[in-house]
């Protein structure tokens, strides 16, 4: 039994040692705080000591209340790491924002928006004027012009808004950065310690970013500003170099914040210094820290590289635009019997260079060749190929080849330029005398004809293969070209986009032309220039994926009563016969006063044709706003104007033509040549009064 008592006595002893503040786990209720159950304490055993909570001032309490030096070091290191991570996140976000800029203004704006208010309260960005491009060596004095400035509005940000702006940018708020909550007081104290009052510092931060700062500053060779820019590294305003460089940059009348409230950061591109940035902070905000110089260096470096990229991109885009526009006609000719109008719109900014072109080429016989084409791709190469194909088309048109033959030779030329040089082209020849048009197509969208009645139709023309495919034949069709009708040539940029396919766009274009024609009075043709503007309205704001070339031709034609045409056999009497026929036509048209000049010039040209021709020659007179005479023969050699010597028997005919005619020329045809001249038609006087 004694053994049982010892065992029962030891159980509460173990339990009380494990947790002295709680009762033993048993079914009996405790008799009192810290007492053993009745009947279980051995007789004569000394009372067990009761534990008590530590009193104030004990060593245990002091160990908990007072952190050790090791804890302080760990806390400081953790705070530095957190602030370093915030700076890295800010630099990453800021550089991404700067890199999004494509042109110069977007790049500088990205720097300003990334810096204010997350990093500074105001910023001034100066760039070299003019900015050198690539390897260009700057000439003249080194001038810096204020390109852009930004600042916090005059009403200061609330603590919550400023903290939100800094947090979103990855920077810590003043309290989180290890500064007391009353950061504004410390900022005022720092400003006053630097000899700068609160009002003066705030005025610098707000005014320096406005018009008060110098707009243009000259960097003197060997001066303090030149030394800072040559050093490349950002410096605080209180450094010896920056204290003299900032007044030179901002102007001597400007008060520059002292201490660490201003940073001057040079902007160095790939080859040279191209500008400078000034970061400013108000007195009610903590001053810059030494680590902020690293942030300024990163911002300056990425901005300078972005400016270099933007300048190069701008120069390339300018060269490409000029190249493309110089390859397009400056102005369209106004041949007899047809009225022309055109439009050209470059593509969007991301693909502004293309290979679309149009042309109108006068041909013999008052005809005109109408051309529109589109080289595949958007690059300077596309623009260069477009220029070569346009020049080739002009040369082929001068040979008076049929449209299908012109496309065949263009296809061969494209293959000579390269295996991947492909283009679409539409070539048409309009004859105002016959009121007919011959069209050949090489994979281009079909033209749309708007009749005088207001009906618009898409012409059915064989599509053909694009130029550059090789080994294909092109087919030409001949269609009526009634007087008063308008034929519209265009490139696929007008009718095709990411929102619609080509044929949907063509149908939309046809409906637009018909709707525009209904706005004009019945029986009248819509004016060409407003018609072109209305057609371009079908292109939505987001549809400019490709450049657009547009060529509109209004067929006026030449009435049969204004045309005189003869075939003459090459005989010795032909010159006399030609003079008689010309005089008779002029009499019928009421142009007797031109008879002497016309007879002389016709006689000289016909005599030269009869001398070498073997087949009948042609003589045609056209009366429009000018009087045009054309003499054709089967000899391909073109006459050349030369100065006849005193002993020469001939060689003076073309000299007379050159002196008497307003214009003249000679064009080679597939069957020979045509020599033509034009004379001005005298103004018609008032109608004679009827005889009484």
Automatic annotation (TrEMBL):
Catalytic activity: O-phospho-L-seryl-[protein] + H2O = L-seryl-[protein] + phosphate
Region (Disordered): 1-83
MF annotations from Gene Ontology: ATP binding; kinase activity; metal ion binding; protein serine/threonine phosphatase activity
Biased composition (Pro residues): 46-56
PPM-type phosphatase domain segment(s): 338-555
Entry EC no(s): 3.1.3.16
Entry keyword S-adenosyl-L-methionine: no
Entry keywords, A to Z: ATP-binding, Hydrolase, Kinase, Magnesium, Manganese, Metal-binding, Nucleotide-binding, Phosphoprotein, Protein phosphatase, Transferase
A Pfam family that the UniProt record links to this protein: HATPase_c_2
Domain of life according to the entry: Bacteria
Sequence ranges of Basic and acidic residues compositional bias: 1-12, 74-83
Keyword flag Methyltransferase: no
InterPro entries reported for this sequence: Bact_Sigma-Reg (IPR052016), GAF-like_dom_sf (IPR029016), HATPase_C_sf (IPR036890), HATPase_dom (IPR003594), PPM-type-like_dom_sf (IPR036457), PPM-type_phosphatase-like_dom (IPR001932)
Main function: Primarily acts as an independent SigF regulator that is sensitive to the osmosensory signal, mediating the cross talk of PknD with the SigF regulon. Possesses both phosphatase and kinase activities. The kinase domain functions as a classic anti-sigma factor-like kinase to phosphorylate the anti-anti-sigma factor domain at the canonical regulatory site, and the phosphatase domain antagonizes this activity.
Protein name according to UniProt: protein-serine/threonine phosphatase
């Amino acid at each position: 039994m004694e053994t049982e008592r010892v065992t029962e006595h030891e159980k509460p002893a173990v339990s009380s040692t494990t947790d002295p503040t709680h009762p033993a786990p048993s079914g009996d209720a405790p008799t009192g705080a810290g007492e053993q159950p009745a009947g279980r304490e051995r007789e004569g055993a000394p009372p067990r000591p009761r534990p008590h909570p530590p009193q104030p001032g004990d060593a245990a309490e002091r160990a908990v209340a007072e952190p050790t030096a090791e804890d302080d070091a760990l806390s400081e290191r953790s705070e530095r790491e957190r602030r370093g991570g915030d700076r890295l996140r800010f630099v990453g976000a800021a550089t991404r924002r700067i890199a999004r800029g494509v042109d110069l203004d977007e790049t500088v704006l990205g720097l300003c928006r990334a810096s204010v208010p997350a990093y500074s309260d105001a910023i001034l960005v100066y760039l070299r004027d003019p900015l050198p491009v690539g390897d260009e060596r700057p000439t003249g004095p080194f001038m810096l012009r204020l390109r852009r400035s930004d600042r916090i509005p005059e009403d200061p940000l609330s603590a919550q808004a400023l903290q939100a702006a800094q947090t979103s940018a990855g920077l810590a708020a003043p309290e989180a950065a290890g500064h007391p909550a009353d950061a504004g007081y410390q900022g005022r104290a720092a400003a006053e310690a630097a000899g700068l009052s609160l009002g003066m510092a705030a005025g610098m931060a707000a005014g320096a970013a406005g018009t008060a700062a110098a707009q243009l500053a000259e960097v003197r060779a060997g001066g303090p500003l030149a030394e800072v820019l040559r050093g490349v590294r950002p410096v605080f305003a209180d450094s010896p170099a920056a204290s003299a460089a900032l007044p030179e940059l901002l102007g001597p009348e400007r008060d520059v914040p002292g201490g660490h409230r201003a940073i001057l950061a040079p902007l160095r591109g790939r080859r040279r210094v191209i500008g400078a940035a000034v970061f400013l902070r108000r007195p009610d905000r903590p001053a810059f820290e030494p680590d902020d110089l690293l942030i300024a260096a990163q911002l300056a470096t990425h901005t300078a590289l972005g400016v270099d990229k933007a300048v190069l991109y701008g120069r390339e885009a300018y060269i490409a635009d000029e190249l493309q526009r110089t390859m397009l006609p400056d102005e369209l000719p106004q041949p007899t019997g047809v009225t022309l109008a055109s439009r050209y719109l470059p593509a969007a900014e991301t693909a502004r260079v293309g290979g679309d072109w149009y042309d109108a080429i006068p041909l013999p016989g008052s005809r005109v060749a109408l051309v529109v084409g589109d080289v595949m791709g958007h690059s300077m190469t596309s623009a260069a190929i477009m220029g070569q194909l346009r020049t080739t088309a002009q040369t082929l048109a001068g040979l008076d080849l049929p449209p299908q033959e012109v496309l065949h030779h263009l296809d061969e030329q494209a293959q000579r330029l390269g295996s991947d040089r492909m283009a679409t082209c539409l070539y048409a020849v309009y004859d105002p005398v016959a009121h007919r048009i011959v069209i050949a197509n090489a994979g281009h969208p079909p033209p749309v004809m708007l009749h005088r009645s207001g009906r618009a139709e898409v012409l059915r023309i064989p599509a053909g293969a694009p130029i550059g495919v090789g080994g294909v034949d092109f087919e030409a069709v001949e269609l009526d070209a009634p007087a008063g009708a308008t034929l519209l040539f265009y490139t696929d940029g007008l009718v095709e986009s990411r929102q619609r396919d080509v044929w949907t766009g063509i149908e939309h274009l046809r409906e637009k032309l018909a709707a525009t024609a209904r706005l004009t009075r019945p029986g009248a043709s819509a004016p060409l220039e407003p018609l072109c503007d209305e057609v371009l309205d079908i292109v939505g704001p987001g549809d400019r994926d490709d450049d657009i070339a547009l060529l509109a031709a209004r067929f006026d034609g030449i009435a049969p009563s204004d045309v005189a045409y003869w075939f003459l056999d090459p005989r010795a009497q032909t010159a006399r016969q030609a003079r008689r026929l010309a005089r008779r036509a002029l009499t019928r048209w009421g142009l007797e006063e031109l008879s002497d000049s016309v007879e002389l010039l016709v006689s000289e040209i016909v005599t030269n044709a009869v001398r070498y021709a073997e087949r009948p020659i042609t003589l045609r007179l056209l009366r429009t706003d000018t009087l045009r005479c054309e003499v054709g023969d089967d000899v391909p050699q073109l006459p050349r104007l030369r100065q006849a010597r005193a002993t020469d028997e001939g060689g003076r005919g073309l000299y007379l033509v050159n002196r008497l005619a307003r214009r003249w020329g000679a064009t080679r045809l597939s069957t020979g040549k045509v020599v033509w001249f034009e004379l001005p038609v005298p103004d018609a006087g008032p109608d004679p009064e009827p005889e009484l």
